[in-house]
Amino acid sequence: MKRISSLLATMTLLLTLLPLQNASATEWTMTEDPGLQMKMGMSGVSPHVERLNGVDRVWRSDGPTGTVASDCTDEGVCTNVPLTGRLGNDFTVVTFTNGTKRAYFKEVEGANQQVYSAPCLDAGCTSVGTKTATTPDMKVPSTTKAWGVPDAVLLPDGRVRIYIVESPVLGKCTEKIASYISSDGISFTKEPGWRFENGYVDTEILRAKANDYVVIMADIACTPSNRQMLFMSTSKDGLLWTTPQILTGPGVEGLDPTGYETSPNVWRIYYSQGRPGNTFVVTRGVLRFTPAPVVTATPTPVAIPTPMPTPVATPTPTPTPIATIAPTPTPTVIAPAPVAKKITITCVKGKTSKKVSGVNPKCPKGYKKK
Questions:
Q1: Quick count: other Cβ atoms within 10 Å of Cβ 58?
Q2: 89: which of 61, 108, 169, 260 fits an S-S bond (Cβ 3.0–4.6 Å)?
Q3: Which residues have a Cβ under 8 Å from the Cβ of 348 and sit 6 or more positions away?
Q4: ∠ Cα 179 181 182 (to 5°)
């Protein structure tokens, strides 16, 4: 039995070591209505969308006035929304668990450009209160190119994180994505390392749940087509991300994507596309994620030699003892010893006489045999 158990253990180990071909690839697809952009009639860059009262409110940077906004129906009919005051550029909004909202945006002021935040003064964030600088680390000279487009997101633990494009060195596709963290949504601290490198820009967190983050982004025309394309990536913590996966197909090249989840693993995406004359329009598409089916391959059988049966030791029977009758010994006949014949002598001492009997009688001391 010990040998058979050992072989079974070996077979189990071999099956365990065989590769199971689990499909790990996932499929992201995106489609766009080619005629929708003309119907919407929105120009600009850095759009940000929120679903409000059954319509999509889309803020975007469009000209020297800074941010403008439109409400768009599901059919793509968009109407301008009046805004009060200046809302900066690269506008984004975070809604906290208590229902309050805070806007985050970039402002160019003289020689510098910096990221600020301000409380929204109404539910639709058509005006904001006093702006506050997020951190000196998100402040660079106004001449710095390929910097900004902050994306603020509420994390599952209630903190706020801002993802932003930075250019620590100049060159082709050297842009990086940094992140800053805040416990109150106002004061931010830079987090170590980079979230993305090698020319990825314009991140938009589409999902931020515990162990489940999804981001859509663009590159800075780093593909062979020399056009800005859209990419997807996922993460467990929002810090370490999978290798970005390019979205291919007609109508998916662009920049500054934004969106929200309409149903499980389906998102509505707004993004900008360049047009002749250095103009930009905002278009819309549908992003879908289809998990690849997990296929477990049947393990290849491993030839295992048939175990030889363990020989069973046959006990040698104990012979039945045979009673042996010892012969009765012949008794030894001992002849009786001859009986010595007694004699009597007379012993005298002076006038005294004694008789002494025995086999070899002797006279006492001082007596003489008569």
A1: 23
A2: 61
A3: 354, 367, 368, 370
A4: 155
Q: Which two tokens stand for residue 332?
A: 């030894």
Pairing of strands 67-72, 78-81: antiparallel
**What is the pTM for the complete model shown?**
0.72
CA atoms within 13 A on the CB side of 313: 2
Helix (H, G, I), strand (E, B) or coil at 189: strand
Return all residues near 242 (Cβ < 8 A) that are at least 6 apart: 233, 234, 235
Average pLDDT of adjacent 10-residue blocks, the chain of 370 residues: 41 38 64 78 95 96 90 94 94 96 95 97 96 97 90 97 93 94 98 96 97 96 89 97 88 90 96 88 93 72 64 59 52 54 78 78 80
Q: Which amino acid is at 96?
A: F
DSSP structure string for 131-166:
-EE--GGGEEETT--S-EEEEEEE-TTS-EEEEEEE
Could you tell me which residues come within 8 angstroms of residue 343 by beta carbon, excluding any fewer than 6 positions away? 357, 358, 359, 361
Q: Where are the beta strands (DSSP E) in 243-349?
A: 245-246, 255-263, 266-275, 279-290, 343-349
* DSSP string over 326-349: PPPPPPP-PPPPPPPPPEEEEEEE
First to last CA, the chain: 107
The pLDDT, as a whole number, for residue 114 is: 97
How long is the chain?
370
Helix (H, G, I), strand (E, B) or coil at 210: coil
116, containing H or E segment = strand 112-119
- Is residue 128 within 8 Å of 152, Cβ to Cβ? no
Q: Alpha-carbon distance 3 to 258, whole Å?
A: 64
Measured distance CA(306)–CA(290) in Å, rounded:
46
How many angstroms separate the CA atoms of 138 and 150, rounded? 10
> Does domain 27-289 match CATH 2.115.10.20?
yes
Predicted pLDDT at 360: 79
